[in-house]
Amino acid sequence: MSTRKARARLAAGLLLFGLAGLAGAARADVLDVLTANAWGHDLASDASCLNPHRFSLEDGGRRLVVTWDSEITDYEGQRRRSGGYEIVGEGETSLTLKLEGESRLGADGQPVTWVLELLPTGIYCWRTTEEPFGACTHPAMACPAPPSLS
User: Which domain holds residue 92?
Assistant: First the structure.
């Protein structure tokens, strides 16, 4: 099985597991959950919990910044440690975001707009606003706290 197919199956499984818990799950503010944790992508070697990312807010809560402990290779093959998003909407379990400097275009020829969907299982997924609810790309999980050195 190709890596791409394996990733798609894992993402679909994580999403279905997460969606099963949505009914009746206690809802926490998406921004509170995102900013309270370190996050890792299990399938991306340079962005796993060995190199976690954290979210922070800037510009009075209108900008979401993601910062990794060490550089990653982004979707354009560039090395970087951080990226910023304009927050354009907030739902009960999601944020709608515009990536600063986005080069990927939607069907309308404009830069894609992203939805970060927080699942009650402690996972978040990405999809574009053009993709249906339930699409799950690049899932990330909250990383366990590092062991105490004392």
Answer: 3-141
* Residue at 146 is within a domain: no
Q: Is-contact 87 73, C-beta < 8 A? A: no
Q: What is the pLDDT of residue 125?
A: 93
Q: Comparing 87 with 119, which gets the higher pLDDT? A: 87
Residue type, 75: Y
> Is 82 inside any structural domain?
yes
Closest CA to 33 of 118, 137, 136: 118
Number of domains in the chain: 1
CA dihedral 139, 144, 82, 7 (to 10 degrees): -20
Q: In the prediction, which pLDDT does 62 show?
A: 93
- Is this prediction's pTM over 0.85? no
Number of H helices, E strands in the chain: 2, 8
Q: Identify whether 147 is part of a domain.
A: no
DSSP H helices in the chain: 3-20, 30-35
pLDDT at 85 over 60: yes
Q: Looking at the domain assignment, is residue 150 inside a domain?
A: no
